[in-house]
UniProtKB/TrEMBL annotation, chains A, B:
The lineage of its organism: Bacteria, Pseudomonadati, Pseudomonadota, Betaproteobacteria, Burkholderiales. Residues 3-205 form the NAD-dependent epimerase/dehydratase domain. One of its GO terms (molecular function) is 4-hydroxybutyrate dehydrogenase activity. Pfam families: Epimerase. NCBIfam families: ErythonDh. The keyword NADP applies. It comes from Collimonas fungivorans (strain Ter331). This is Nucleoside-diphosphate-sugar epimerase.
Length: 324, 324
């Protein structure tokens, strides 16, 4: 059982690799557990840990030779996490197209060329929705992305669905809520603040919230995202029916409720480190995303959200807060 | 005022060119009528007519040099009609991707490189919908194509919307109903029979209907398609709001109703030339398409459907039936 993770040196990629190495096995296409013999992390940088089963490939995933080298007939699972995040894809259109669209298609082509069709897991995003939206987005709500990132993710979804329908890959797309709380540093995602306003105060730093307190977000913790990726891989193809895309469960909270949860879990002085400074460019992107979606299908398929945002804050403290 | 039509030697392309040459002018971006000085038809073959204002370019629209040559800073309108039809795109996946996706993207890139952003009109299709559909598809119904053609058209829609949002082009996508009655010969579209069962009997030939009599189609005549293309070009960008995609009006009829209309207009012996021979592959594609969609938005924007199918049959007889 060999696994490939693109964006493998990123926060989610590393965490997924660690979880897979810890659990040690995955079901094969017949549902039989098989030991994981190799995990290949593909990224522009190296991951910060090592394991006898870990291979690290550093390079450009738009390079066909690189993908052809790492995706082989022995590859059973490909987790495609590499992406240019929303803010950066908006600022650099061509880079977003190259990584979020061209590399995704190239990856599908490499999988198609394999004698044994691998399971391919794409991550997508709330950003595929936009425009006039119902209060709760449904599975059958039209995609109308209002950002280049959302457009590129929507296209990758369509490609993966058609490649799966044709039998070229056995694909699954998980539409991720905004992930909070991400550890580490702010990134160029428009939603970076959704982690920053919790992470920075807990680390004794001020944090700027660029959107209004009543802006509603649809959130999932890193713990639950990793569980969803592994669960998404493990589902039988038949369970997915006529669409390979699943809107993952999340919790719907306003930014004000997030800060209130921080105050409940960590105290008033910590929550007081959040400063409010409106940024219209970020607000425009974030406000175009749905604040909640119907998760009936995901629930039936066995995906699970966090209990509430207090739980998410506590999970960050347990998993990621550096020892004082 | 210079106009480019890809697929310009095809049935719609030629008819659009003739209509534009006849009307002689189009509004510019300020709504001022300007004389059409040149129409460039790009296709793999030559169109069967000539005009002093007509330029014919024969070549492959996936060739960047060709598109860069025909789309210039003087180009005000690009009607992108070139496509691999549904049945052929399903049979030859890579050809469909190359023409329906890669060439569309290349065309957008060529337009983006122009100092004066041209208006770009894409045609899309009922085939972008699929799976479990409401009886009447709404503007906000999710795309869930069940064919490679539908997938490629859906992707082109997303690209055109994002290129328009970014200001790279001033785009419009018209989602066409199935066109009936097309003149000429059957083609590899899964919906080819929707013209054939009217055209062949009127020309004294038998025609095979590969789907059940109660299959419902969403139809528009060639006359109304051409009018819609020109109207779609002429709309001000502001009128389109947050989506550049418009579901065109059509009429919703069953195949049995189409044959009944043929009998009313042309008589029982003509209608009796339709033979029923079920083809599961065609039925599967056609039945995944919506039989009707809500056209409120298109109506507000001024697009117009045919009155009924009898009218469509009569229009074919007037416009296209060869003199006996």
């Amino acid at each position: 059982m060999q696994v490939v993770i693109t964006g493998g040196a990123g926060f989610l990629g590393q965490r997924l690799a660690r979880s897979l190495l810890k659990q040690g096995s995955l079901p094969d296409r017949n549902g039989q557990l098989q030991a994981i013999s190799k995990i290949t992390l593909v990224d522009v940088a190296a991951a910060g840990f090592d394991d006898a089963r870990l291979e690290q490939v550093i390079g450009d995933i738009t390079d066909p030779a690189l993908l052809e080298r790492v995706i082989t007939p022995q590859t059973a699972a490909v987790f495609h996490l590499a992406a240019i995040v929303s803010g950066q894809a908006e600022a650099d259109f061509d880079l977003g197209m190259r990584i979020n669209l061209d590399a995704s298609r190239l990856l599908l082509e490499c999988c198609r060329a394999c004698a044994n069709v691998p399971r391919v897991i794409f991550t997508s995003s709330v950003a595929v929705f936009g425009g006039a939206l119902p209060a709760v987005v449904q599975d059958h709500t039209a995609l109308n992305p209002q950002s280049s990132y959302g457009t590129q993710k929507a296209i990758a979804e369509l490609l993966l669905n058609d490649y799966s329908r044709k039998g070229f890959v056995d694909g699954r797309v998980l539409r991720l809520p905004t992930i909070s709380v991400r550890p580490g540093k702010p990134n160029q995602a428009a939603s970076s603040f959704a982690s920053g306003i919790i992470r920075e105060p807990l680390n004794g730093q001020p944090a700027i919230c660029p959107v209004a307190p009543d802006v509603r977000l649809w959130l999932l913790s890193p713990r639950k995202v990793i569980a969803a990726l592994i669960h998404g891989y493990s589902l039988a193809a038949d369970a997915l029916g006529q669409s390979r895309t699943v809107n993952l469960p999340g919790i719907s909270v306003t930014v004000a409720e997030m800060v209130a949860a921080l105050e409940r879990v960590a105290g008033k002085p910590v929550a007081a480190r959040v400063e409010w400074a409106h940024d219209p460019a970020i607000d425009r992107i974030i406000s175009s995303w749905p604040g909640a979606w119907d998760t009936t299908r995901a629930n039936v398929l066995g995906f699970v959200a966090d209990a509430d945002f207090d739980d998410i804050v506590r999970a960050y403290i347990e998993d990621d807060l550096p020892a004082a």
